[in-house]
Q: What sequence folds into this?
């Protein structure tokens, strides 16, 4: 299995409270300040639905 390629989410602001995402078969999300605590995984349809309801900044 390939190691996820993490990057800062475009939804993260400049406050230092950021999340990182890794896209692939599922989208993985983790807290940049607590990476050792693991991540959440979302199926493609779930991730798309979440992004549709988030307010645009």
A:
């Amino acid at each position: 299995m390939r190691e996820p390629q993490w990057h800062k989410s475009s939804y993260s602001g400049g406050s230092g409270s950021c999340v990182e995402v890794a896209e692939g078969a599922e989208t993985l999300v983790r807290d940049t300040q607590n990476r050792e605590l693991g991540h959440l995984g979302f199926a493609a349809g779930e991730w798309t639905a979440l992004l549709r309801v988030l307010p645009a900044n």
Summary: The radius of gyration is 12 Å. The helical segments are 44-53.
